[in-house]
Structures are given as structure tokens and as C-alpha cells.
Amino acid sequence: MRAHRGLASIHDRAREAGYELPVFDVDPDLQSFCEWGNADFISDVETATEQVHSRTMALAGKLVALGPDAGVARFHKLAEQASLVGEDAGRLTAVRTGELMTDPEAWYRAASALECRMLQGVALTQWLTLAPDAIPPSMLQAALEDTRSRPAAISAVLARSVVDRAGETVIASLRAEDVPWLDRLFCREADDVMHRLLVHDDPAVAASAAVSFAVGTAHGPALPETWRAAWRSALEGMLIDRLTSHNRWRAGYVLAYVAEHDADTFERWFDRRLQDMSAQGWYSSPLPHDSEDLLALLPRPHRLRLALQCIGMPRIGPSALVPLINSDAELAKELLDEHAVDPGRLVTCLEEQRNTALEEIGPLLLERGVSAQQIAAAAASYSSWSGDRSRIHLELIDYFTDLADRAPALRTVAAAGCSQQQTLLREAEERERDTRVRGWSRVGA
After folding, report:
1. Domain span at residue 5?
2. Closest Cα partner for 66 from 30, 126, 110, 32?
């Protein structure tokens, strides 16, 4: 099969050059089993797609005609041969075979005996479709307890839209480790299975269902209004790091929508994460990657309540005060005047904020006794850079020089910033000179 594929693309050129390449006798069933790997999408995509479907359907018919034992053995053999070709194929063939099964119980037992997981899954799906009450609970439980067959049982239930006795057994058994099998729930309708997942006891399972609805994104089933309370509850229990990477991406869109349109739910979600972090002893952003700015979308009362919880909390990474306070001087005044927050604790809201936040909040903190050096150091901080570090300090000197002309109230901060950066610039240039001369940086430099 590999040689056949390798030579197929050069047969015409070989003939033009006067050579006749050998033609290999490849099992047509194996070619059909490899499905998309043998399709020619270059000339006609539509025709190639139709050929793949027609060939797999014909192969499925041949497998079913062999009967459960021989059919599973043949499928298993083709899968082994496909793996030698380098193909992870057979899924479409398995699905079509499952659709043609009239005795799925016999197919399930035969597939289990040979540990043929793809056929085991589709046989269980067909069995659940034709006679769900006929599946012995002990057999289903055994499939769930075996890590090799558990995915097949889960997939079989997720392929259906109803929750019967067997479905309830499988769904109730789901736990956080099973969320990879919930990665494509956005392709479903809002059926009984989706509702059961949404109200699941495991927060990771419920959250995986919650982010799969078309909330904040166009893809996914519409969220029924009668499910909204359950959806909010599932969302509030969501831990981003328990989701798959795809569902983390979806969670970002859902949280963005909630921050703008359902601030109370967002606040409850963030508050629960803060409570979790209080127990662990430090703050680390619970939001999806690069989504900290979502906190700035909240109304001022919500940001005030969350900021009061974040002030003074030990942290790893950026402070939540940066997006919570943003450039809102009125919120900063309220924290200082009505909640007796130490002005020094608000300096963190200016970290890396070389923008209107510094120009709005900086003068207020200066008035309340925070030193210009503290404010300048916070604004000049940076979490990453590329190239020589001296270049960063030169850019910061330019920034603070311009700041002195643009914001007279911050001239002392600008002067402090220029002084700090000039000192750091000299140190950086000395290290870079050492590196150019010696090829290494001095220890402790």
C-alpha cells in the first residue's frame, strides 16, 4: 500500500519518459478501509468524497454479511494492516457497519473478545438504540470499569439524545478525567443528554456542557430559557484548568458575554475562584489565557467588590487590580476614602500601565502620599521582552520624557522614571558589553 501510494503520483511522468512502473496488487478492502487516506481531493473534491462514502458503505455491507465473529475478525485485521501503512483509519467504516447491525449484542461480545474498540463502541450504540433495556447492567458496569472499553461506552451514550437506564448509568459515572469525550458537545442539539450533563454533580462535566451552548459564540445549540438557571450554576462552578483546550477557548467567549450581559453571574464565578485561592494562599488568574481584560467590562459596583477581595492577596502573575481599577479614578477614590484602603496597596494597579490608567490614577496616589519612585517603578515594569534589554530602557526613558510634557501632574513620576531607567540602562549596557566580549554574563549582574 505504501509503495502503491508513493508511485501513484509519478506513473504518468514515468510513462512520458518511457518507463512503465510496477503496479501493486493491493487489497481493495484495505483501500476502502483507509478511507480519506486514499481519496484524491486534488481533481474533484465532491467526487472524491462520494467515493469514500460509497466504498466504506460497500465494505460495511461485506463485513456485516460475514456475521459478528468473522466480521469483527476481518475488521480487526484491516485495522492492523492500516496501522502498518501509517493510517489511523476505520472510523467511518465502523459507523456504517454499526448502522447495518441487526444483532448488536453479538457484535459487541465479539468486538470485546478481540478488544476491537471501534466496533465495540458502534455495536453498543446500536444496541442502545435497538434494545437499551436488554443490556445487562453488569456488562455495562464492567465496560465502564475497564479503561480500555470505557471510552466506547461513553461515546455510545453521547451518540444518543435520550437518557434511559443505561444512559443514566454511564452519565452518572462520568468524572473530570472523562472531559476529553465532551469536547464536541457543541455539535449536539439541546436534548436530554445535554441537560443531564449540564446538571451533573462533577463541576468539570457540567462546565463542559455549559460552555458548549451558543452563548457568546455562534456555534453550539441554543440555550433553552428554562435551562438558564442550571446553566448559570454549572458556569459558576467552572475551573478553566479542568477543561480541554478547545473548551477553554470557548469558555473565554462565554465569560466575555457574561461579563457584559450577566455581570452578577460573572461576579459569582470570579468570587468562587477567589475563595478557592484564599484557601490555597495566593492569587493566580482563573481566567483563560490572555482574558484578564474581561474584568474591565464589569460595572463599577462589581469591580469594587472584587477589588476589595484582591487587595493585599499574595499572587503569582499579574494583579487582578490592573483590569478591575483600570483608569477608573472614581473607583480608586472610593477604595481610598470609603474603604480605608492603604494607598500603597493600589500601586499594583499601575503595573505595566503606561497609558491613561497611569495618567488618571497616578496623580491621586501622589496626593495620598505614594512616592513618585514607587509609581514610576510600577508603570515601568514589564513581564517579557525580546532583544537587548538596553533597548527597553531606552524606550522607557523616551516614554517618561514624553510623559513630563504631556501630564504636568506626573512630572515628579516622569523624573523618577527617567532616573531609574538611566541607572538600569547603564547596568544593561555593561552586561551586554560583557556578553559581547566574553560570551557570557557576569554572575550576579
Report:
1. 1-156
2. 110
